[in-house]
TrEMBL record:
Protein name: Zinc finger protein 704 isoform X1
Top-level taxon in the UniProt lineage: Eukaryota
Native source organism of the sequence: Danio rerio
Gene coding for it: znf704
Length: 464
DNA sequence: AGTGCCGGGGG
DNA sequence: CCCCCGGCACT
């Protein structure tokens, strides 16, 4: 099917690889300037297209459809052009995650696919035309490319060189395009997030712009409801700036990303995503629940307030880590995309409220709503927290310290910020899922439980 | 079945 | 109060 779709559409602006006047010896690349149908000329009787190509050397030539197709298809060398132009193979390669299906088609290059190049082209000029006609396809390709960006593929380079060669006026545009483009792709989770974290975290919260790694969402405003497409895309605006240089190099980026595109494509391209995350640090000390925006702050808080140490961080033995938890709030729409339940309301973004509700002593009835142990558990989340928890033992420092019960540190857990169970039973909230004395100490050590647990009351030690 | 804890009891 | 437990809601 791809062939059908690929071809026959406007290819103006597409680059092609054509044999020089002398033949294959010196292949030239050129840009299709016009296409016309020529019935008369067809020796075979059926009509065919004649492409007017502006060659890199400035000359203008006309080629029949077949000629162009062949040129591109035949010489391996030239194929570079092809890939350069359309990036088709890349698309196929990188599909991994989602949307593998449709992309697959892009992969195969048939002779006809010669025209595919134009897809790429839309970076520059020809895009408007093709867009209109074949935007659907274009979009998918773009998407793919975007996704692929990070992957290491040699294609890019080839393309680049080609472009340099044949692009004259277009070159500039290309460069700009590639530089500013695609948001892309999978962000190396950890790295990115950390880096970003620090920055915004310290400065107060900046609700939007942080993209978390691991989660992507596609919530294009206009069409998040595309259940069938698992693919996501992702990209966060914030990435743009650095992404190019480091990740994939200019070449692959490709594509779209220009405003122009967005205008041209009426389809919402999932690219501009905002994955925003916030990181908060919550004190886990019994009945404290203080939430600070910086790790240092929370550590200091714990050190001074709970551990009774006044010295600076130097004298810290790291114990503070056990008493606070890092919470990442993912404001983006993973939730809405995945859970498809409720549209996200911005209001939910602020973590504090959610956290606060339960910290009080747990007796007011709202205590355990967010679970720290079940990832993505609740339904209809509007935002989600990634809780990075270190231990929650705030019990008696001496105890936990020396005994070291579960030493599992750093578990990353996702918790939803919106009141999970609102929908369900009103009377009873779901029970807290965090560690409780019983779990931590076991029935054998019941005497070590907090009194509340002993009384079968809401645990006050491990308040989640 | 195991767990969390509300709502009630007894001292 | 302190301590304990029946029993329900959840997982």
């Amino acid at each position: 099917m791809h062939t059908r779709r690929l071809v026959k559409r406007s290819v103006i602006g597409s680059r092609v690889c054509a044999p020089g006047l002398t033949g294959d010896a010196a292949p030239l690349t050129g840009v299709i300037q016009a296409v016309k149908q020529d019935n008369r000329d067809a020796s075979t009787g059926h009509r065919r297209n004649v492409y007017t190509v502006l060659m890199q050397d400035g000359s203008v030539k006309e080629y029949s459809e077949e000629e162009i197709a062949q040129m591109t298809a035949k010489a391996p060398l030239k194929s570079s052009l092809k890939s350069t132009c359309n990036g088709g193979q890349r698309d196929g390669l990188t599909q991994g995650q989602n949307g593998g299906v449709q992309r697959g088609e892009a992969l195969s290059l048939s002779p006809e696919s010669t025209e595919e190049p134009r897809v790429l082209e839309h970076k520059r000029t020809g895009r408007a035309l093709e867009t209109e006609k074949d935007h659907t396809r274009s979009v998918s390709l773009l998407e793919q490319k975007r996704k692929v960006v990070s992957s290491s593929i040699d294609v890019p380079q080839a393309r680049k060189s080609e472009e340099e060669v044949d692009m004259d006026k277009v070159t500039a545009a290309m460069v700009l395009t590639s530089l500013s483009t695609s948001p892309l792709v999978r962000s190396p989770p950890v790295k990115v997030s950390e880096g970003l974290n620090g920055s915004w975290k310290d400065g107060g919260f900046t609700p939007s712009s942080y993209s978390s790694s691991g989660y992507w969402s596609w919530s294009a405003p206009s069409d998040q409801s595309n259940p069938s497409t698992p693919s996501p895309p992702l990209s966060a605006d914030s990435f743009k700036p650095f992404r190019m240089p480091s990740l994939s190099g200019p070449p692959d980026d490709n594509i779209d990303e220009h405003d122009g595109n967005s205008l041209l494509f009426d389809e919402p391209i999932p690219r501009k995503r905002k994955n925003s995350m916030k990181v908060m640090f919550k004190c886990l000390w019994k009945n404290c629940g203080k939430v600070l925006s910086t790790a240092a702050g929370i550590q200091r808080h714990i050190r001074t307030v709970h551990l009774g140490r006044n010295c600076d961080s130097e004298c810290s033995d790291g114990e503070e880590d056990f008493y606070y938890t890092e919470i990442k709030l993912n404001t983006d729409s993973v939730a809405d995309g995945l859970s498809s339940l409720s549209p996200v309301s911005p209001s939910v973004l602020s973590p504090p409220p959610a956290l606060d509700q339960r910290q009080p002593d747990g007796t007011n009835g709202t205590k355990s709503e967010s679970s720290s142990s079940t990832p993505l558990s609740r339904s209809a989340p509007s935002a989600l927290y990634l809780v990075h928890t270190d231990h929650a033992y705030q019990a008696s420092p001496t105890h936990s310290r020396t005994q070291g019960f579960g030493e599992q540190r750093s578990q990353t857990i996702a918790v939803l910020s919106s009141p999970p169970r609102a929908a369900g039973s009103l009377s009873r909230k779901s029970r807290g899922e965090g560690k409780k004395c019983r779990k931590v100490y076991g029935m054998e050590n019941r005497d070590m439980w907090c009194t509340a647990c002993r009384w079968k009351k809401a645990c006050q030690r491990f308040v989640d």
